[in-house]
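Recall that a protein's primary structure is simply its ordered list of amino acids. Everything else, from secondary elements to tertiary packing, is in principle encoded there. The following example makes that idea concrete.
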Amino acid sequence: MAVKVCPECRHEITGRQKYCMFCGCDLRKAKTVTLPEAKDAKRDENVWDPEESYRRASATRKLLLVFGLAVLAVACAVLISSVRFSSPGTGIPALRAGMSIEEASRVMKDSGYVQDGMPSESYDAVSQLYQSREVYGYTTVYSILQVGKGEDGEVSLAHYYQEDIVTVNGESRKLRGLRKAMGSLYGDAEYEQGIYPYYWWPEENGGHFLYSTGDLVIAGGWVHN
């Protein structure tokens, strides 16, 4: 079978086309060759092959995509490791020790919390009340942010829930549900039995806590320098 080989891109052209469909080269003076001759010409390493160039470009793009995803994964890991007092899906913002009340309030606002009134100040801390919202899968009555004035710069956030009727082993269904939700995020809790059960998850510079007063269930965390 006789074909034409484009003198520019070396593609095989069948039919009576006057111009190459691949690169637009004028084929009216192109040499007509047999199909075996065309294949031999295409195998010539000194001849540019658009198909081979496309395959190489595709491989390069795939390599760049894999490299970009790896860089993104490392960046996310660094970001997660640098965030303090924050866990996905808990509604707890990334509060850090040493923040001022203004800085902490901005973090809370960016996390969707709505202030309830103005901050109140004591001799060792500034507190801010926040309206009801869902945290750990349960709706709070309110939340309280507390920013310490001491040298350790402790910051704490406590969520208050309406207690259920106490049922099993002195614990309510809500307390058990919150313990399960927090345990899935922070691991096994340490337990202290006082008048009411108290659970806490210690960390290097702070931790998380959960307990009941009989009227309220309180869950939250704290961080310090």
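The first strand starts at residue 2 and ends at 5. The first helix runs from residue 35 to 42.
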